[in-house]
Design brief:
Shape: globular
Distance between the termini: 26 Å
Structural class: mainly alpha
Number of strands: 0
Radius of gyration: 19 Å
Strand content: under 5%
């Protein structure tokens, strides 16, 4: 549990509330510095986990959890300040609530979680970069003319892909949890992680 990569992941999680406070207070320069430190530890914990052969299930859970929390805190902090609209927060959080419900449905049917779809990864990538790019425009207003269109393009495209992946997860959940019709065989390809 207390491997070097896991400790770095715990440090990232501890930086999340610091990041939120800095964003809400409008200290975007310091918030960006915290984000850079978090990104560096994110990269470092992955490299060290492979190099030291310390890949663990806990680390595989902590890493995406920290990424998701940084996205949520940036969304909430920027929405509180009026930099981004609350509807964008609702769209992104709504999709994750849907995935949580799908996870419960899958578990109730005896299935493990669905494999991550590449669209979900691309969407997370877009959102992970959209919010810091928008923050750069807040920290350095002279750059906002350039950062705002790029940040909004990443944010809107990321939200769209986030939901597109969500629809795929929904349809896949419906497919694997449906009851077979009388006389219908269920092949191994129709099951996940039983």
């Amino acid at each position: 549990m207390f491997t070097i990569p896991n400790i770095l992941s715990f440090v990232r999680l501890l930086l999340v509330p610091v990041f939120l406070v800095l964003i809400v207070r409008g200290e975007d320069g310091f918030a960006l510095l915290v984000l850079v430190i978090s990104s560096a530890t994110d990269y470092l914990d992955g490299v060290l986990a492979r190099w030291l052969n310390q890949v663990s299930r806990l680390g595989q859970l902590l890493d995406p959890a920290a990424d998701r929390l940084f996205i949520f805190t940036a969304l909430i902090g920027l929405a509180v300040r009026g930099v981004i609209p609350w509807w964008l927060v609702a769209i992104i959080v709504g999709r994750d609530v849907m995935l949580l419900v799908l996870g419960v449905i899958l578990a109730n049917h005896g299935f493990g979680p669905l494999p991550v779809h590449h669209l979900g990864k691309v969407a997370t990538f877009c959102l992970f970069y959209a919010l810091p790019i928008l923050m750069i425009g807040q920290a350095f207003p002279n750059l906002a003319l350039f950062t705002a269109p790029i940040g909004w393009a990443f944010a809107l495209w990321g939200a769209f892909l986030y939901w597109w992946a969500g629809v795929i997860y929904f349809s896949e959940t419906a497919r694997v949890t449906r009851k077979p019709l009388l006389g219908e065989d269920v092949s191994e390809s129709d099951t996940l992680g039983r």
